[in-house]
Design a protein that fits this description.
This protein is mainly α. It has helices spanning about 5-30, 35-40, 45-65, 70-90, 95-110, 115-125.
Length: about 130
């Protein structure tokens, strides 16, 4: 599928993902009881909750900026890779939701890569 239908589907996906990651990042930064407990169970310290929440918010915002949407997808793919591995090997939670979000973020990253790579190509040609 290409062209306009693909673009519409990607935008709908990006908006949904952005909303989900804004909620997830905000709950981490606000220090909700569930988030504090999860990060205590991980054992890396609460600083990781702040970093993860900040990355989720940044990724969500970047998903909504057309030329930076692949970068947002990349950031969120990294965050969700960590979440998936943490659920699988560190804490006793199902990794299914993390895996779904990982795949969706990676799909956005891959399908929007030419927009973001265009910025890199343009900055490299002006010398």
């Amino acid at each position: 599928m290409g062209g306009k239908p693909r673009n519409i589907i990607l935008w709908v996906l990006q908006v949904i993902l952005a909303g989900m990651f804004v909620m997830a990042g905000a709950s981490k930064l606000a220090g909700t009881q569930d988030m504090v407990k999860i990060f205590q169970d991980v054992g890396a310290g609460q600083w990781l909750r702040y970093v993860t929440g900040s990355l989720e918010l940044a990724g969500a915002v970047l998903l909504l900026v057309p030329r930076l949407s692949a970068l947002g997808g990349l950031i969120l793919t990294g965050v969700m890779t960590g979440a998936f591995l943490t659920c699988l090997f560190v804490i006793d939670e199902s990794p299914v939701s993390a895996a779904v979000l990982l795949v969706l973020a990676a799909a956005v990253m891959w399908n929007r890569r030419t927009l973001t790579l265009g910025i890199v190509g343009q900055s490299g040609t002006s010398a």
